[in-house]
Amino acid sequence: MARQATRRSPRRSATRLSSSEGILKRGASTSAMRRPHRKGWLRGYFKGHFQALFLSLGRVSRNPLSSLMTIAVIGIALALPAGLHVALKNVQGVSAGWEDAVQISLFLNQGIEAAEARRIAEKISAMPAIEEVVHVTPQQALGEFRQYSGFGDVLAVLDENPLPNVLLVRPTKAASEPLLVEPLLHELRNFSSVEMAQLDMEWLKRLYAIMAIGERGVLVLAALLALAVLLIVGNTIRLAIQNHRDEIEVQKLIGATDAFIQRPFLYSGLWQGVLGAMMAWLLVTLSLWLLQGPVQQLALLYSSNFSLGSLEPAGVLVVLSAGGLLGLLGAWLAVGRHLRDIEPT
Amino acid sequence: MIHFENVGKRYADGGEALSGINLQLDAGEMAFLTGHSGAGKSTMLKLIGLIERASYGQVIINGKNFSKLGRRHIPYVRRDIGIIFQNHQLLNDRTVFDNVALPLVIAGLPYRDIQRRVHASLDKVGLLEKERMLPLSLSGGEQQRVGIARAVVNKPPLLVADEPTGNLDPALSAEIMNLFAEFNQVGVTVLIASHDIDLITRMDKRVLVLDKGRLVDGAGEQGEVQP
Predict the structure, then answer these.
(1) Domain containing A170: what range?
(2) Which residue in chain B has the smallest CA separation from A263?
(3) Chain B residues touching residue A19 (CB < 8 angstroms)
């Protein structure tokens, strides 16, 4: 005490003594304040969450490199199913118009003149089951071939046009049913001047079957990668818990509840998941942007103005909430397993 | 405030750290707990801080029977006990202010109250001007005082200290002990484990003596003093 007295001025000692009564006056009696008052419970609850939200964000930003690594891994894991989903949606978009555009190509005999072909076309379009018949003359076909195939120079070698007259027959919607279209095909094939009649349906069915497999595949992949995200976040949080072991012990020693201790870890998981999902969105958008040019080129070759669709707003929402939920769940599993093991000794 | 009734503690390896402890420490009392190393001082403090549970007998602190306390309730009970550790148990990556503020943050107090009370508490232990520093840049005595400031900041009715002067020179030790005496003067019950016999004698307070897990002196009104 002697040392203390020489070190500090008397005035200061006096204030210290009065403040000691100030801070401990209620010491012997109150403990009510330590349990949050019922009225302020909700406010305290939100305040605690608010604090943990920013504390966890601080933790994420304090280790930018390792956080970025985790977020990138989550991003890639989420980008794969999201990207495949977008690709599938685009393929479906392209092929959606095809189903009701059942078309029969009639290749007429080689010797038939254009006038004769026009007469046959009129005759066919008069049939009740037919919506429209388009006559493609050999000259038109040759022109298209020259323009799009890239083999235009080869044609110069040929003496005469090898292409026949072609009638593109589109049945009415009612006649396009698979059961009705088969007899129609048979009927058209029996025309004397028809060399060959071709119905482009089988490949469409196959395409749809393949797309159904693709859809299922995306789901399976998404489930597997969701599990991966869960494990990644769980492991990251497990390491974080181990790194904060001392802190957790101290917090428990001075009366922190499990809820208080686990909150920042849960929010860390949530942040990682959401930021990973944003990374995934970015990756998908970037990939689509890179693909846009070549795809448009391809679409031009099919004389289509098709443009690559990106992740729709609802899809973005799904990716973001999936990321957040997976992050939270992974953190929750890790916290549940590892927080209880840490007890002060 | 502290009531032990035939309390014993056996560890998993079969060693009996405490046996048949009877003790009554009233509210507002100040007492020292002493004895050789391994006599059971730390175990007794761990029972009070709910870090260990008694193998048998009743530990009743501040009216709460610990043997009937569920895991869920432990944090709330600990908030009523200010514990001071020999190794300080400070968070070394947080400032002095944040360390002292932690019990109040846990209790969910508004920031304005936290600031006011942390300042009052730091002023009390004479470290107000060091609130922005990290614990490791302080001396051992200063770190110990940060620990004390944290223990008293939420005004617990009971203060428990485990060798609070363990690594300090005599002058600093006396300063720390006087701090505890000041808290006791305003009504806080204080129990200090220490083997510094000289210091304890000079403080002239009740002394509980442990020997090989038995309380051999100072047990209080209900305690049986054994020869």
Answers:
(1) 104-200
(2) B106
(3) 120, 123-124
Interface test with A, best of B123, B145, B158, B188 (most A CBs within 10 A): B123
Nearest to B189 by CA among A29, A254, A15: A29
Cα dihedral across residues B210, B214, B218, B222: positive or negative? positive
Residue A9 counted as domain residue: no
Residue A22 within a domain = no
Close Cβ partners of A203 (under 8 Å, ≥ 6 residues apart): none
Report the pLDDT averaged over residues B4-12.
88
- Does residue A14 have a pLDDT over 90? no
Q: Residue A76 — pLDDT band, cuts 50, 70, 90?
A: very high
Contacts of B187 in chain A (CB under 8 A): 24-25, 27-28
Is A19 within 8 Å of B123 when comparing Cβ atoms?
A: yes
Residue A41, pLDDT score: 66
Rounded to an integer, the average pLDDT of B194-207 is 87
Q: Please indicate, yes or no, whether residues A160 and A292 belong to a single structural domain of this protein.
A: no
Nearest to B157 among A16, A23, A31 (CB): A31
Q: Is the pTM of this model over 0.80?
A: no
Q: ipTM of the assembly?
A: 0.87
- A24 in Cβ contact with B183 (< 8 Å): yes
Cβ distance A257 to B188 less than 8 Å, yes or no, reads: no
DSSP string, A9-40: -HHHHHHHHHHHHHHHTTTTT--GGGSPPSTT
Query: Given an 8 Å threshold on Cβ–Cβ distance, is B186 in contact with A20?
Result: yes
**Total structural domains within chain A:** 2
User: Considering only CB atoms, which chain B residues are within 8 Å of A62?
Assistant: none
- Mean per-residue pLDDT of chain B: 88
- Tracing tokens 């200063």 back to the chain, one arrives at B142
Tokens of A153: 């120079």
Residue of B223, B220, B218, B224 lying closest to B32 (CA atoms): B218
pLDDT of residue B123: 93
Residue A171's SS3 state is: strand
Residues A92 and A196 in one domain: no
Contact A31, A37 (CB under 8 A): no
| Mean pLDDT of the region B157-186 | 88
Nearest one of A271, A281, A277 to A312, comparing CA atoms: A281
Nearest CA in chain A to B103: A254
CATH number at residue A186: 3.30.70.3040
* CB contact at 8 A, B191 and B40: no
Distance, in Å, from the CA atom of A290 to the CA atom of B227, rounded to the nearest integer, reads 89
pLDDT higher than threshold 70 for residue A9: no
Closest CA relative to residue B210, chosen from B31, B12, B37, B1: B37
| Residue B186 and residue A25 in contact, taking contact as beta carbons nearer than 8 Å | yes
Helix-strand-coil percent breakdown of chain B, rounded to 5? 40, 25, 35
Cα-based angle A271, A272, A274 (whole degrees, multiple of 5) = 65
Q: What is the CA radius of gyration of chain B?
A: 17
Query: Residue A53: its pLDDT value, please?
Result: 76
Q: Which of A168, A200, A232 is the last residue of a domain?
A: A200
